[in-house]
Write a structure and sequence with these properties.
Layout (H helix, E strand, L loop, with lengths): L1 E7 L5 H7 L4 E3 H11 L1 H10 L11 H5 L4 H25 L5 E5 L14 E6 L2 H10 L5 H9 L4 H7 L2 E4 L4 H16 L1
Parallel strand pairs: 1-3, 1-4, 2-3, 4-5
Helix pairs in contact: 2-5, 3-5
């Protein structure tokens, strides 16, 4: 199995690009949302750390928003990430006979989930487009975006480590052309 991992900034369009590959997809953001909605063990651990804020199950984004700081995001990550890793292991086991899988995991490198054999693809998007996309989100909050970005490795390092770069500043047709070229190179 060849693992294709997408890297990029918040709002760069990693999820959109990952779906365009049409390979089995592991979307960490969806898994985290499931964990907040269905995992009572995770809730109990978060409730123990933040008893005044994480009070109701299922955990809502508004409960989390109220506690997001640089320090607290590390605490939350230490609690939630083992569950995400467990889901990732199950996903990889289920898809072990598939030739390619796509990993859409925002902190892929930061959480040391990468292997030497992974194909890293950086999704590059103009700052103007990223900001426009982020503003459209229901939960847009500059402070939270800043806190989330503070957890990420520098863009230049991610780009340097990537074997491919997809420019997501244009339309879907352009993305599909870039993906086709990448698939052709990987399959060669």
């Amino acid at each position: 199995m060849i693992r294709i991992a997408l890297l990029g900034q918040i709002g760069s369009g990693k999820t959109f690009v990952s779906k365009c590959f049409r390979y089995p997809l592991f979307n960490a953001d969806q898994i985290v949302n499931q964990i907040y909605k269905k995992n009572k063990k995770c809730f109990k651990k978060l409730n123990k750390k933040f008893p005044n804020n994480i009070t109701k199950f299922p955990i809502t984004k508004s409960q989390l928003r109220n506690i997001l700081t640089k320090k607290n995001i590390r605490i939350i990550s230490k609690i939630v990430h083992p569950y995400v890793r467990s889901h990732l292991r199950k996903f990889l086991k289920i898809n072990k006979s598939v030739k390619f899988v796509v990993l859409d995991i925002p902190l892929f490198l930061e959480n040391k989930l990468n292997k030497k054999s992974d194909i890293l693809i950086y999704v590059k998007t103009s700052k103007k487009i990223i900001y426009k996309r982020l503003k459209k989100r229901d939960n847009f909050n500059k402070k939270i975006i800043y806190i989330l970005k503070s957890q990420q490795i520098e863009i230049s390092k991610k780009m340097r480590l990537s074997q491919f770069i997809i420019n997501n500043s244009y339309g879907k047709r352009n993305i599909l052309k870039q993906i086709k070229k990448i698939k052709d190179k990987i399959n060669a």
